[in-house]
Each structure stands twice: as structure tokens, then as C-alpha cells.
Specification:
Layout lengths: L8 E10 L2 E11 L4 E5 L6 H8 L7 E6 L2 E2 L5 H7 L1 E4 L11 H5 L14 H15 L14 H13 L5 E5 L7 H16 L3 E5 L3 H7 L2 E6 L2 E7 L5 H9 L17 E10 L3 E9 L3 E6 L5 H8 L5 E8 L2 E3 L4 H7 L1 E4 L3 H5 L6 H6 L3 H4 E2 L2 E2 L1 H14 L16 H14 L4 E5 L7 H16 L3 E5 L3 H7 L2 E6 L2 E7 L5 H9 L2
Parallel strand pairs: 3-8, 3-9, 6-7, 7-8, 13-20, 13-21, 16-19, 19-20
Antiparallel strand pairs: 1-2, 1-4, 4-5, 9-10, 11-12, 11-14, 14-15, 17-18, 21-22
Length: about 500
């Protein structure tokens, strides 16, 4: 870049080491006021480590940070906030039992001369910030009563309350419906027009082209390139990210399925499920599409006994079954893999080995004690088969990249010996290269005889791997389509109705 360019932030030759790992190797990154600079890379590329250095969570080992024309040593998260650096993470940092106003000014309360909190001013100032971000809620509203999209806006409001100069968004649209995404992007454009500098992390190519000005690509802890977001083609961007060409349009549909394994007839539940009927065959991937809130997850949770069934029947291998709980379903050979892999799919504080064998304790428990040799053998088998990148089987699950965490979840499912696998948003928050590996793995499992249901909000991936696609709207399955000659437009038609 030309030397006369004026940057709000420059990170030069940033290096960070962890025991046995060079996480960042002389990374360069810069940011201008009034721009959206997208940080791109596969899971494990170093994006999060770089942002944690910027936010004060990590201390760099080498390199230089120039902030607002001053060489700056960011000492800790509090110091970063004082400088005007705000980070909005995927996992919200909100107290659900406090009000909106209390969350915005938590730790930074307005006080009277007597020292007590000035609640009148707190709510007045909170109302001003809510108006700025477009959150139309009373400041007294408890956070537990907000939607996910509203919580996202509240996180932005919290950051802006500190007179933020740099705002970092980490996968902000992962759990948002399209209309909420549109509102968020409108807000980002508004902030950008006011001179706000924004760092945006996302794996969704369509978002990058829509909202980004420049993109910096990292790969394996190294700086690859900085490119113009609008001028660089999608194909070239993916090649820079993955280091190889990936054909996003190549379909990977499994071979012709076998006999019906799971049959659902007129299934109903209080939560968004109305007389759902479908079947699933051996060796098949059945995709489930629909808008957010259409009832896809609720159907699956009703099948496995997580939600109360109010009508209909479920048959497994031609036998009527009544699953009392997910554990009961698992024992019968049906496993549900949650869209929330961190909250419901993994025990993050446990190591990879324990997570993989968690659903197969009968095999690894001998005489009321764990057989570590057996645990190690099983975990090594799946680490090798699924190409899980980890320092060892004893690495904690929380330290793995999103794609490798998802592979551990899949390993856990395979270790359970279940033959019906229900994947809910299996590639959420995963980079394009890791997604392709997951697609290959799902197809391989289908070829091995597993019966697979895949719920996804991303229509291209449903089309990519499904034999058939069930489309849902307002708790009902509106149609089940053969994949051949299908288009996204046709799926959207059935998902939205006339």
C-alpha cells in the first residue's frame, strides 16, 4: 500500500507463539477510519489470535502496533476499551437478568455525588444509544426477554457507549435471520459513513462482497494478501483462503439410497411442528431447508424426545418407537447433533479423547473405571479418519478451530454406533475449506450406509449433498423435492409460500 495512506491502526510483523505452535508469523494488518476491513482465513488461520492481541486478551511476542499515529502496547482488555477498541464476539457477553441499561453501563455506571448509581441518567443515556443502533426496546427490559438479533444490537450499543474508534465484528450473522442481517448491515453502513473503523470476520462470501471494502487473508498463521473486496472474484478469494481451488458448485450427492430406516407420520408438537411426514433411507442424505424459525430443529427435537409430541408416530426399521429422551434415542441408534456445538455438542473443558468416547462409555469403562488404552485407541482412530488437527488427543476441545470441533462432534456420533445421524447446521461458523471436508465426510458416511438428515440455512450446501430436500414453512413440511435439476429459487418459493 502507498506510504502516504493514513491509517487509524497498523499492526506490523505481529508474531505470537504458544507451546509447540507458531500461531502468528509476522502478520501485517492495517485499518482506515470509515472502512470495513474483512479478516479472512480458514479456521485456525490466526484471525482470532490477531483480534485477541488487538483487544488485549493476548500479548504479542514480536511486532509493533501503531494506533492513532502512536506506537501502543495494549496491556489488557480494559486498556483496549479505554483506547476505543470494542469487540463483539459470537458468544454474547450479557447478563440475562439485568436490564438493557444495566448491561450497557455495567462497570461504568453513572453515579451521584453521594456515590449511589444515578438511574435516571443511566436510562436516559441508554435510550440515546439504543436510538443510535435502532434497538426499539425500553431500557428497563430484561436481556432474557430479547431476541438474538436484539442482543446483537445491544452488544453494539455497549461498545458504542465507550466512544469506540474501532469496532470488531466476529461472525455477527451466524445466528441471524435474513431480515435481521439486512438491519445489521444497514447499521454498519451508517456507522461507516460516520467514520467508524470496522473489522469484520466472516466465512460467508456473499457478505464479504456486500459489505467489505478490503480483505486481508491469513493462512496457517501467515499473511497471504490484502485485496479489494469488490474487485476480487469469489473464486480468487476462495483460492487465497484455502490455498487450493474449491469448486463450490460441484455436487456431491450420494449414490441411490436403500430401504427406509426412519419413518415419520403426521408428527405434531406444541413448538412449531404441524403434522410433519417424511421418511429417511439407508445411505441417503435428506436435506431440510426453510427460513429461520420454520420448525426444522423442532421436528428433530420432537423425534428424539427432547420436545413433547402431541400427535403422530415415529417408526425406526418399521417398528413404532416412542423416544423418551435423546439418550433413549441414542440407545436405539438415532443421534441428534446440535447446531450449538459449543453449548450442546461438546464439553469444551474436556480433551478431544474424552469428547470422542463420551457416547460410547460402555466400550471404554471396564469394572467401573476408564480404560485409557481403549480411549486412546478409539480417539486415534477418529482423529486419523476425520483428519482432526490437534496437538494430541489430550488437547482441550475449546482450543480447536471450529471445523475441527465439528469433526470431534461427528467422531462422537460415529463412536456411538448410531446409524441415523441428524446434523443441525453442521457447517455453521466454518470456513470454506473445512466446509468442503465436512461435505466429503457426510457423503462418505452415506456411502457407508448411514442414514443422514442435514438441516442447513445455506441453500447451496443443501443442494450440494442431498438426495432429496424437505422444505418447511411455519412448522409444516410444504414439499419434499428430488435434488435433480433443483434450484435455490424453487426451494425459496416453497419456503416462503405464495
Amino acid at each position: 500500500m502507498p506510504s502516504e495512506e493514513k491509517y487509524l491502526l497498523e499492526m506490523k510483523n505481529i508474531t505470537k507463539r504458544f507451546p509447540g505452535v507458531l500461531a502468528l508469523d509476522q502478520i501485517n494488518f492495517n485499518l482506515k477510519a470509515g472502512e470495513v476491513h474483512v479478516l479472512l482465513g480458514e479456521n485456525g488461520a490466526g484471525k482470532s489470535t490477531l483480534i485477541k492481541i488487538l483487544s488485549g486478551a493476548y500479548i504479542k511476542d514480536e511486532g509493533e502496533i501503531i494506533f492513532d499515529s502512536q506506537v501502543t502496547e495494549i496491556k489488557n482488555p480494559k486498556h483496549a476499551i479505554e483506547l476505543g477498541i470494542g469487540v463483539i464476539y459470537q458468544e454474547f457477553n450479557l447478563n440475562p437478568f439485568f436490564s438493557i441499561a444495566e448491561n450497557i453501563f455495567l462497570g461504568n455506571e453513572f453515579r451521584k455525588k453521594s456515590g449511589v448509581i444515578d438511574w435516571k441518567k443511566t436510562h436516559e443515556e441508554a435510550a440515546k444509544i439504543l436510538e443510535k443502533v435502532g434497538l426499539k426496546k425500553k431500557t428497563q427490559t430484561k436481556v432474557k426477554n430479547l431476541s438474538v438479533a436484539e442482543m446483537q444490537l445491544l452488544e453494539i450499543a455497549k461498545a458504542l457507549s465507550e466512544e469506540t474508534k474501532i469496532l470488531v465484528f466476529d461472525e455477527p450473522t451466524a445466528t441471524l435471520a435474513q431480515e435481521d442481517v439486512d438491519r445489521l448491515f444497514a447499521l454498519i453502513e451508517k456507522l461507516k459513513s460516520q467514520g467508524q473503523a470496522i473489522i469484520y470476520i466472516s466465512h460467508r462470501m456473499e457478505e464479504i462482497k456486500r459489505i467489505g471494502d478490503r480483505c486481508t487473508i491469513l493462512r496457517d498463521g501467515q499473511y497471504i494478501d490484502t485485496v479489494d473486496a469488490k474487485q476480487t472474484t469469489r473464486e480468487d478469494m476462495i483460492k487465497l483462503i484455502a490455498g487450493r481451488k474449491i469448486d463450490e458448485n460441484l455436487r456431491k450427492i450420494p449414490k441411490e439410497p436403500g430401504n427406509v430406516v426412519l419413518e415419520v407420520n403426521n408428527l405434531s408438537a406444541k413448538q412449531k411442528v404441524k403434522k410433519a411426514s417424511f421418511n429417511l433411507r439407508e445411505g441417503e442424505i435428506l436435506g431440510f431447508a426453510g427460513l429461520v424459525g420454520s420448525g426444522r430443529t423442532e421436528v428433530m427435537k420432537t423425534i428424539i424426545g427432547c420436545l413433547e409430541k402431541t400427535g403422530g408416530e415415529v417408526k425406526l426399521n418399521q417398528q413404532t418407537v416412542e423416544f423418551k429422551s435423546p439418550v433413549h434415542a441414542l440407545k436405539k441408534g438415532v443421534i441428534y447433533l446440535s447446531e450449538d456445538r459449543k453449548g450442546e455438542g461438546l464439553v469444551l473443558c474436556m480433551n478431544v479423547m474424552h469428547n470422542i468416547t463420551l457416547t460410547n462409555l460402555k466400550t471404554v469403562v471396564k469394572r467401573l473405571s476408564l480404560c485409557q488404552t481403549m480411549e486412546k485407541q478409539i480417539s486415534h482412530q477418529y482423529i486419523g479418519k476425520l483428519k482432526i488437527k490437534c496437538s494430541s488427543e489430550k488437547a482441550q476441545a475449546k482450543n480447536l478451530s471450529g471445523g475441527n470441533q465439528q469433526k470431534v462432534v461427528i467422531s462422537k456420533a460415529l463412536g456411538s454406533k448410531a446409524k441415523v445421524l441428524i446434523f443441525d447446521e453442521p457447517t455453521r461458523g466454518i470456513d470454506v475449506g473445512a466446509k468442503d471436508e465436512i461435505y466429503d465426510l457426510l457423503v462418505e458416511l452415506a456411502q457407508d450406509g448411514y442414514a443422514i438428515i442435514m438441516i442447513s440455512s445455506e441453500l447451496p450446501e443443501v443442494l450440494k449433498v442431498s438426495n432429496r430436500i424437505a422444505v418447511m414453512r411455519e412448522g409444516e413440511i410444504t414439499t419434499i423435492l428430488e435434488n435433480k435439476d433443483l434450484t435455490q429459487e424453487k426451494i425459496v418459493h416453497y419456503a416462503m409460500g405464495d
